[in-house]
Inverse folding.
C-alpha cells in the first residue's frame, strides 16, 4: 500500500502543480487578498476534491457516465462558472494595486466552487481512482487515497500561498498585478469556452 500512496502522491502533486483554475484562483487571492484568504481558498479546493472522491467512491461517477444529459448539465455549469471568473478578472475596472482582503468565507467558497464545478477536476479524480481502485478495494482505503489527493493538493497550494505572499516576492509581484490578473482572467475564460466546445451539444 505504501508504494501506491507514493505513486498517488506524485501524480496528485503533478496534477496540482499544472496551471489551471485552482492555481489561478489561489494566486488571485494571494496577490489581491492576504495569505489567510489564499490558504482558505486552498482549503476550499481540497474540500471539493473530497467531494469528488466521495461520489467516485459511492459510484455516483458511474451513474453520471450513464446519464449523459445530467453529466453535460454539470459540465455546462462548470464551464459557465469558469467563464464568469475569467470575465470578472479580465473586464474588471478596479485597480489591483492595493491589497483587498475579501471576507474569509468568500475566499473559501471561491476555492471550493472553482474546483467543484471544474469538469477536469472530476475527470482527474475519476482517472486516478481507476488506476488505484478496483471493486475489491475497501471503502476505507478509497478514502485514504482521497485524503492523500486532497492533502497533497493542500500542501502545494498552501506552500504557493506562502511563497507568493512573502514580503520580498509580493512587492515584486505587485508591480505586475494588473497584468497578471488580466492574464489569469483570459486563461479562465478560455478554459470555460474550451470546455463548452468539448461538450457535444453544439
Amino acid at each position: 500500500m505504501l508504494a501506491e500512496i507514493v505513486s498517488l502522491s506524485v501524480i496528485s502533486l503533478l496534477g496540482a502543480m499544472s496551471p489551471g483554475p485552482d492555481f489561478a484562483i489561489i494566486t488571485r487571492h494571494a496577490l489581491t487578498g492576504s495569505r489567510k484568504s489564499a490558504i482558505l481558498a486552498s482549503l476550499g479546493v481540497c474540500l471539493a476534491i473530497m467531494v469528488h472522491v466521495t461520489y467516485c467512491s459511492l459510484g455516483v461517477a458511474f451513474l453520471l457516465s450513464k446519464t449523459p444529459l445530467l453529466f453535460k448539465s454539470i459540465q455546462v455549469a462548470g464551464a459557465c462558472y469558469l467563464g464568469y471568473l475569467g470575465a470578472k478578472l479580465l473586464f474588471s475596472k478596479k485597480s489591483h494595486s492595493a491589497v483587498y482582503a475579501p471576507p474569509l468565507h468568500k475566499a473559501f467558497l471561491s476555492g471550493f466552487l472553482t474546483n467543484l464545478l471544474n469538469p477536469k477536476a472530476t475527470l482527474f479524480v475519476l482517472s486516478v481512482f481507476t488506476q488505484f481502485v478496483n471493486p475489491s478495494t475497501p471503502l476505507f482505503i478509497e478514502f485514504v487515497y482521497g485524503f492523500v489527493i486532497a492533502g497533497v493538493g493542500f500542501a502545494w497550494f498552501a506552500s504557493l500561498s506562502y511563497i507568493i505572499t512573502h514580503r520580498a516576492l509580493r512587492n515584486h509581484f505587485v508591480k505586475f498585478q494588473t497584468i497578471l490578473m488580466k492574464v489569469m482572467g483570459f486563461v479562465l475564460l478560455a478554459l470555460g469556452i474550451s470546455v463548452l466546445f468539448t461538450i457535444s451539444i453544439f
The chain has one domain: 1-11+24-92+100-200. Confidence is low (pLDDT under 50) at residues 95-99. The chain has ten helices and no strands.
